[in-house]
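Batch job 17 of 40 flagged for manual review because the log was empty.
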Amino acid sequence: MERETGTMTRIAKPTIDVAAVRRDFPILAREVHGKPLVYLDNAATSQKPRAVIDAVSGYYESANANVHRGVHTLSVLATEMYEGAREKTRALVNAAETAEIVFTRGTTEAINLVASSFGQARVRPGDEVVISAMEHHSNIVPWQLLCQRAGAKLRVVPMEKSGDLRLDEYRKLLNERTRIVAVAHVCNSLGTVNPIAEMIAIAHERDIPVLVDGAQAVPHFRADVRALGADFYAFSGHKMFGPTGAGVLYARRALLETLPPYQGGGDMIASVTFEKTTYNVLPHRFEAGTPDIAAAIGLGAAIDYMDALGSDAIEAYEGELVAYAVDALSSIPGVTLVGTPKHRVGVVSFTIEGVHPHDAGMILDHEGIAIRAGHHCTQPVMDFYGVPATNRASFAFYNTRDEVDRLVGAIAKVREVFKS
């Protein structure tokens, strides 16, 4: 959108009508303990707009049937809606074709799919898998299990106290034994945005494929898998305003075609005899059994909703909001931010002097404020910073500066309680 100003043409900054957006999310109107809800736990799961809720209920009310191979009207309609969601997902991440979009139950299953199938096909005794020091447990444990089964070794890219990865050490870790790199696009406990395109390029210099955990990235900015050069990219619907039970694995066709099936059962087969089974075409080869059809349809509706807002507008608005939160929380006596990454989205983690995060979280809840208190499924990160847990405030485009101010005021009450 352009705006004329005198003789200069300036690009108008993309904006979001937050008041109108909030009206689209029914749960944001509720109260908790008699106070208006302030929902700052978006990194755990996001809230759902009416359009997503209606899409899910609409499927059950008017098109409930199993997908694929059915010839009756409801099955055909359900299949069109389900595969339509796959095309929306393809466009969201700019995959080359829908065959590269595998529906899963979430990021965790998508990573496990790659660890299992890729591991079976490519990882042998003495090989190495590289992850980073800031990974979610879902991007650690599957690779540990693979290494245990295969006799391979897990290598870890270290990070700075700022919460930024050591790219010099990353480059040194890669060698002729490295079979795959698995790294988060955005750290769920620190908000660090990793330089994924650069990391992929470094790995590709040695022909090493890269899996990216995009669960915390896709809700906040456009993730173009082809521009990044990603070989695998995993994310979850419930963190991007869609239903639980909907997840996505993007995988380059050339790689996906080389991998054995992850699970066996219906829909992943072309034909079955007692002597031999032949497998279905991509991506169905990796989607055994009846999928969560309603969740996929809801994911499609969530993508439509985000597209209507615009990724540039989302990124710009949230960037300002998170910067405001960082400044506000940093100014509170006794509050220490955990991690100061160069590029941050979505998340601000902090501790309060003399107050366990669980105690702080309970008091904040009585003020109507929902944050996450704990290790956030990143226990190695907590160990690195020498803390058992942190408070984590995580943001979406429906949050406001007023809500940040309420959080700041409530933290002051937490400190008063523990002083007394």
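Reviewer: the log was empty due to a logging misconfiguration, but the result itself is present. Confidence is low (pLDDT under 50) at residues 1-10. Unflagging and moving on to job 18.
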